[in-house]
Amino acid sequence: MKKLIFLSNKYRGLLxxxxxxxxxxxxxxxxxxxxSSIPVPMDPLIALYAWNNRHTFLLYVLAASVGSAIGGxxxxxxxxxxxxxFLLKRVDRVKYEQLRDRFExxxxxxxxxxxxxxxxxxxxxxxxxxxxxxxxxxxxxxxVFVGRMLRFTAVSLLxxxxxxxxxHEVGALVQQxxxxxxxxxxxxxxxxxxxAVRKSLRKKATA
Length: 207
Fold this sequence. Notes:
The chain is mainly α. It has helices at 2-19, 24-36, 42-52, 57-71, 73-80, 84-90, 93-116, 123-132, 137-162, 165-176, 178-206. Mean pLDDT is 80; it is low at 1-7.
């Protein structure tokens, strides 16, 4: 296990050295690739950026958030172009209808919350679903941007306060309790849906 961690840290160090000449643009580029096609461990990378650039970490957070929002347009437009059948191959009909309900009632929060959460949250599934259910492009980009800003800022502040190893430890903890994390996400969505339904009923009652 220690060997794997060492190799992982070495890989991140090499990647950071390669991207260093690009400054905060490098963070944006990697985030774009991560969201569009090539998976990259963004949290550890953001942690290294924050650790090495403590006074300007917000620039890296901002660039990564923008890159993530732009890169997410790739799976979003694939879903929008006719990805319903593909989505149904990934989830069963019940899950599909639940996703549809979430995006119809609270599309912004339906994408904002997954964008805030670390792996193993199936983020690209929600991005793809946003396209399938025709979420407006600017709402989509804003939800991803805000969610990523909150997540990357939290990662940066934790790193600056406690060191880069803290991000690895938190990530490992989340991985160990993946089911609980996803269950918590489901509860949050259920509560938000309940609030949305109540607001809708109140509006109809006062109309």
